[in-house]
Amino acid sequence: MNRTDYQKYLKGMSGKRLDELAIFEIGGLGTWDGKGAPIIDSLPQRKAKKVVYRGIDARAHPHIFGVSPVDYEKYRDRSRQMIREHTGKEEGIDALTIRWNGQDVPYPFSDGSFDEFHCHMVTDSIVRPEKSAYKPTPEGFADEVNRLLKPHGRVYISTDRKGHFFPAWHETEQYAELADRLIQRLRTLEFSINVLDAGRSLQEDLLGKDYSIQIGEANFYPLRHFTYITHHIDFALIATKAPHPVRSK
């Protein structure tokens, strides 16, 4: 990708002004040192009369929750209550980030709620083999993406070599297997794969797979203008949901 492509990638820019644009982001509080997440920082630039933003983050509002981010049972009811009690704006930016672990699916939002689904290098190792009830398989995560997106909605995923989203990069065989399973599930759900970039070793492991798109080489340089993450990009995916509902089997 070039710099312009990455701007469209990270910020999901639309060429026409919309009445409403609904965006979901995993890791809505940004990086560990408190800098904003790339998507929430872009909201004022979006071409929409109303932008609805919903973020989830295991670190959100510790003074309210007072529980560990891995204490799965205690924060759910409070987070759902925050969603119910939230009064959104009729125009402008309506943003809310709740405490929720990205590994804990399903997320507390209704089917077909969002135009965009983002996960960019800020939630550690969401997709894992079946080791825990709270860590989704690639298929389970793809099903959740499909559930939350509206028809024609887009999913944007990026990860670095430190294992944010997939396991650590040095587990190359497992990394490639999980990436392939995620892509294949999205294709089964009739998503169109728009962009697929991978680091060199991962790219070699994925070559020969039929994704109906050429795999590009992931390049961090153009991405640095749109994110605070300083590691090399190893996987970048954009996919568009079908115009009609496709249920997971």
Offer a quick outline of the entry.
With 249 residues, the chain is of the alpha/beta class. The protein has helices spanning 3-11, 38-42, 62-65, 72-85, 138-148, 172-188, 200-206, and strands at 18-26, 48-57, 92-99, 114-120, 149-160, 192-198, 216-217, 233-240.
What does this structure look like?
Helix 5 (138-148) runs parallel beside helix 6 and helix 6 (172-188) packs across helix 7. The mean pLDDT is 81. This protein has an eight-stranded mixed sheet. Strand 6, helix 7 (200-206) and strand 7 (216-217) form a beta-alpha-beta unit. The protein is built from seven helices and eight strands; from the N terminus they run αβαβααββαβαβαββ. With 249 residues, it is an alpha/beta fold. It is globular and about 50 Å long. It has a single domain (3-240), classed as 3-Layer(aba) Sandwich (Rossmann fold), CATH 3.40.50.
